Amino acid sequence: MKKHVKPFTYLPKIEAVKEGKITQTIRPEKGISEGDSILFHGYRCKCGAEDWEPLDDFYMKLRCKACGKRMGYATRKWSWRKRVTVIEVVKATAYNWGLEFQDGSKKLWRELDDLAKKDGIDPPKGEMLAEVLKSVYDLYRGKKIEIIRWK
């Protein structure tokens, strides 16, 4: 069992993750396994504020509402923490057309609305999931991903 530390910056998802309503994230493949422990966290600005506003449509580039500094330049401390235990990891490969899963099955982005909903994508559409993953991780062109679920 390994321990991992992962940040959450997708604003529409954070509160639901903290409350346990969302128990899935999709990330580039990093060797997460069932039984591993992940410490998820948010960010607090150096000015002390925890309220961020998006600078793009995908909530990935953020600015502190209080002082106006961009996340990355302004962050210092974690604002919240949540430790979880991984119960399932689904490996897949992301392409511009959709996902190819480790079992060889393939799904187009438009067929992945349920996956987008479980991941807290707003709106919960497979096409929006594709845009978020592309914006955050540049997950097209055959990049390996992990769909991580926890309790």
Question: How would you describe this protein?
Answer:
With 151 residues, the chain is of the alpha+beta class. The protein has a single domain (3-150), classed as Hypothetical protein (Archaeosine Trna-guanine Transglycosylase, Chain: A, domain 4), CATH 2.30.130.30. Helix content is 18%, strand content 40%.
Defining key terms:
single chain; Archaeosine Trna-guanine Transglycosylase, Chain: A, domain 4; 3 helices; globular
Assign an overall shape. Answer: globular
Please identify, by name, the CATH architecture. Answer: Roll
Strand proportion: 35-45%
Query: What is the count of β-strands?
Result: 9
C-alpha Rg (nearest Å): 16 Å
Q: Give the low-pLDDT segments.
A: none
Structural class of the helices, strands and pairings?
A: alpha+beta
Query: Helix count, per DSSP?
Result: 3
Report the CATH topology name: Archaeosine Trna-guanine Transglycosylase, Chain: A, domain 4
What's the number of structural domains? 1
CATH-level-4 superfamily name? Hypothetical protein
End-to-end distance: 15 Å
CATH class: Mainly Beta
Fraction of helical residues: 10-25%
